[in-house]
Predict the structure.
Amino acid sequence: MQNSSLNKADKKITRWTAKNGLILLRLSIGIVFVWFGILKFFPGLSPATDLATRTIETLTFGIVSGGTALVLLATLEVVIGVALLTGRFLKITLLLLLFQMIGTVTPIFLFPSEAFSQVPYAPTLEGQYIIKNIIIVSAGAVLWATSGGGSLATVEGDAENPEEA
């Protein structure tokens, strides 16, 4: 009897997360991008400022200066975040997210001594900040796959037994 109740609860939770999980994923990533992007507009608030500006300066061979780089990065992050929050232009937004994420990972290669205290296995705080972006890239892949009509499967057996729903 208890097992049956647990199964029913599990199915309800699974259905709810299948129905709402994608929007929660999109909104949570959007919040992170807006928040981190806004911080970059205010000197000293983002711990990523120095590394981000030096990375962009290096990648652009000095054509884009630190201050300009920071404004461009902050703007890009806020635009990505707002687009994720609104759900508008999702494919273009996810391409921008991928572009931004590629830029975010480059300090591991450009400045390994700042990304790792012991290269390549002991990341610094900045390195951990970079490495966690693997999750954002994976989430972006899920959003891409489902934005064109793909969906998450619900509880196995729901189609055969709709009365259990």
